[in-house]
Design brief:
The protein is mainly α. It folds into two domains: about 40 residues, no CATH class; about 35 residues. It has four helices and no strands. The longest helix is centred in the C-terminal third of the chain and has 27 residues. It is flat.
Length: about 70
């Protein structure tokens, strides 16, 4: 993260990770969600899992040939 310029130090990365962990433990913490720029699509487990299921289903519908066409 530091090498990519997304954080200024390892401490910044660790602090961010602690906030993510805290939000995972207490998903109702709107203050952390706001600070991290996350909305219900990410913090609501049911919505998040539905999005992942939809993505995986879309990949299976595309199949190998469809995935290769996306890269072109």
């Amino acid at each position: 993260m530091v090498e990519a310029g997304l954080a200024t130090s390892e401490d910044d990365v660790e602090g961010y990770a602690r906030q993510i962990d805290a939000l995972h433990q207490e998903p109702q913490r709107r203050d952390l969600a706001w600070r991290l720029g996350l909305d219900e699509q990410v913090i609501d487990e049911q919505l998040r899992l539905a999005e992942m299921r939809n993505f995986i289903e879309a990949l299976t519908r595309l199949g190998r040939e469809g995935l290769l066409a996306v890269d072109r």
